[in-house]
Amino acid sequence: MRIKIIGRxxxxxxxxxxxxxxxxxxxxxALDELNLKGILIEKCASEEEYNSYGIVATPVLIINGIxxxxxxxxxxxxxxxxxxxxxxxxx
Length: 91
Description:
single chain, Glutaredoxin
């Protein structure tokens, strides 16, 4: 399973994003509660990658290449449902 969190980029620099940090924290908690070990949470590596998604609101949660949520931090229980759904698909 591939999990990516994307925050705001401007002029080649990632901006500090409290919502992105909270999303990362909740995703990690959800992974821990589901006993899913060894899954890394990736972050957007460049402004070009950020722009490639056509993002209008951050944070963005992407699981296995699919945007699951954008513009807000979902509750941990919703994150767990996203993760379970992807596991059922074989992700």
